[in-house]
């Protein structure tokens, strides 16, 4: 039995995403498991992260479990459109809206708060969840409200004459910290 549900997510500004996140961290996914919660047809996918570096939030955090709506349990599949659940083995930078409590997707702006780390020519580089390289951050960039296409306003995924190579992970984290994401 399969059930699909849809969601509509508004595009958010990078500065709002950083300021509105309780936790921003660089980490890797250790495990993922579907579990039942509440009602018999309520399924979440519990993702366990190894926290490698905290950009904003409690610095002593080393491991974190987050629940994402949907999953597969006992032959029942529950899925949500536009839901990007981190995969086992992936490395990324995650903007967590709230660490505790029940949210359909705990990442701020859903896919907008789910960035991936990939090995590049100059070391580790940052990419959007759909593997578009990030070239720059423009935190002041904002436009009229619109639906999300998976990338927050201010995350630049188009090459410019001044940025011909994707941002390295270290440069990305340094810029977030400059914007106010210092650890507590």
Overview in brief:
The protein is mainly beta. It is built from two helices and eleven strands, in the order βαββββββββββα.
Give a written overview of the molecule.
The chain is globular and about 50 Å long. Helix content is about 10%, strand content about 40%. By secondary structure, the chain is mainly beta. The protein contains 2 helices and 11 strands. The strands form 3 sheets. It has a 6-stranded antiparallel sheet with strand order 4-3-2-7-8-9, covered by helices on one side. The chain has helices spanning about 15-20, 170-180, and strands at about 1-5, 25-35, 45-55, 65-70, 70-75, 75-80, 90-95, 115-120, 125, 135, 155. A hairpin with a 6-residue loop joins strand 3 (about 45-55) and strand 4 (about 65-70).
What is the number of E strands?
11
Termini Cα gap: 45 Å
Largest sheet: 6 strands, antiparallel
Adjacency order of strands in the biggest sheet: 4-3-2-7-8-9
Radius of gyration: 16 Å
Q: Averaged pLDDT, please?
A: 87
What helical percentage do the residues reach?
under 10%
Shape: globular
Helix-strand topology string: EHEEEEEEEEEEH
**Count of individual helical segments:** 2
Low-confidence blocks of residues: none
Strand content: 35-45%
Instruction: Determine the structural class based on helices, strands and strand pairing.
Output: mainly beta
């Amino acid at each position: 039995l399969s059930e699909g549900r849809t969601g509509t997510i508004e595009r958010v500004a990078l500065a709002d995403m950083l300021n509105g996140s309780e936790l921003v961290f660089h980490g890797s996914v250790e495990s993922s498991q579907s579990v039942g919660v509440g009602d018999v047809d309520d399924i979440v996918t519990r993702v366990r992260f190894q926290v490698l570096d905290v950009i904003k939030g409690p610095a002593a955090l080393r491991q974190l479990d987050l629940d994402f709506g949907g999953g597969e349990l006992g032959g029942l599949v529950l899925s949500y459109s536009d839901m990007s659940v981190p995969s086992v083995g992936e490395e990324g930078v995650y903007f967590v809206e709230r660490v505790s409590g029940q949210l359909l997707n705990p990442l701020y702006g859903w896919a907008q708060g789910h960035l991936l780390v990939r090995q590049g020519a100059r070391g580790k580089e940052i990419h959007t969840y759909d593997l578009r390289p990030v070239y720059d951050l423009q935190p002041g960039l904002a436009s009229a409200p619109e639906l999300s296409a998976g990338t927050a306003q201010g995350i630049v995924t188009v090459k410019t004459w001044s940025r011909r190579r994707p941002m390295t992970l270290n440069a990305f984290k340094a810029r977030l910290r400059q914007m106010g994401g210092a650890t507590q």
